[in-house]
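Encode chain A's predicted structure.
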Amino acid sequence: MNHEQGRPRMAIIDPNTLAVLGLKQILQQVMPIVSVDTFGSMAELQANHPERYAHFFVAMNIVLENRQFFTEHRRQTIVLTLSLDGGSQFSEFHSLCINVPEQELIRALLTLQQHAHPGGKNLPTLPQVLRQKILSDREIEVMSLIVQGYINKEIADRLNIGLSTVVTHRKNIMDKLGVRSVSALTIYAVMHGYVDINKI
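Encoded structure for chain A:
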């Protein structure tokens, strides 16, 4: 497998441009070490050296039309489905329902990533800047509770701190990590081992 500068490459093959752009952004948040290329059709993928991709995120209709290729690459293929029961015709593949709220999609991606690469196995190490401990211990506690779904008042009660202190911590966490959503915070917390995926 050819990794450009040690970065695994992922391909998204789906004619739906909006879905592709959204999934690409989420994948790059979930796995900051990967390069993600997007293709609107199977022909585009095949013209761009498909052998260099570690994983293919593929629309159902493209898998059906190119069954032989994806069956040969079943361990690398994740079928993008629109319903939670991906359909028995895709039972041999990993599947990902993209028709769910963002938080659920991120949880599914993180689960897939941890299942496929437990403890980061087969993935290059994160760059030093992403491995550094950026947050204080208290900020890590606050972040952990945020991604588990607690509201500010509950966090204040659990940690015996004032509500305004929670709000300040929350702002500082977002600023330090350069994130703007709870989804992005969830990705950071799970990928750095601060929160067990089963608690979100």
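The two ends are 33 Å apart (CA to CA).
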